[in-house]
Amino acid sequence: MKAKELQELIDFIAKSGLNKVNIETEEFKISVQREPSYKPVVSMSSQAAPAAPAPAAAPAPVATPAAPVAAAAPAAPAADNYVPLKSPMIGTFYRSSSPETPAFVQVGDLVEKGQVICIIEAMKLFNEIEAEQSGRVVKAMVENASPVEYDQPLFLIEPM
Question: At 3, which helix (H) or strand (E)?
């Protein structure tokens, strides 16, 4: 991985709001983690050949994302019991892996913790988003192929 690609990855992570990313290929393994002070920490180990040390990355300024505008929609009864599954990054939301395949989940489906619920595309990478807890999908908060912000609710889940 070239220094420029590494810097672009760090900048993307800083903008996405993610605190930790691990990438592993046959050629290298990279782990990028942001501490509470928002300083990027990079560790990289190469399995093929020794790579040049990564340049020291300056702390990237992190903009606080604006709170998403809530649409005036009728709330379901007992909405206090629902837990939102929020977007861990900025990107494009997809309910299925391709237009020809069915959605990962539908409203009313039971999901297990760790089950893939949707995909968010960011910088041409498709990131599977998993359920954080078991429960029933009560409402889909985002339309398919729509842009999403960091921490934006994607689904409402009724815990089981």
Answer: helix 3-16
C-alpha–C-alpha distance, residues 20 and 16, integer Å: 11
Amino acid at 158: E
Residue 160, pLDDT above cutoff 60: yes
- The H or E element that residue 130 is part of is strand 125-130
Q: HEC string of 41-66?
A: EEEEEECCCCCCCCCCCCCCCCCCCC
Structure tokens at 101: 């395949």
Contacts of 116 (CB under 8 A, 6+ apart): 104, 128, 129, 130
- pLDDT over 70, % of the chain: 64
Whole-Å CA distances, 46 to 12, 20, 26, 75, 82? 22, 19, 9, 51, 44
Q: What are phi and psi of 98, to 5 degrees?
A: -160, 165
Provide the phi-psi class of 28: left if phi over 0, else alpha when psi is between -120 and 50, else beta: beta
Query: Which of 27-31, 54-58, 123-127, 154-158 is predicted most confidently?
Result: 154-158
Backbone angles phi, psi at 71, to 5 degrees: -80, 145
Task: Please write the tens of the pLDDT for every residue from 111-140.
Answer: 999 999 999 999 889 999 999 999 999 999
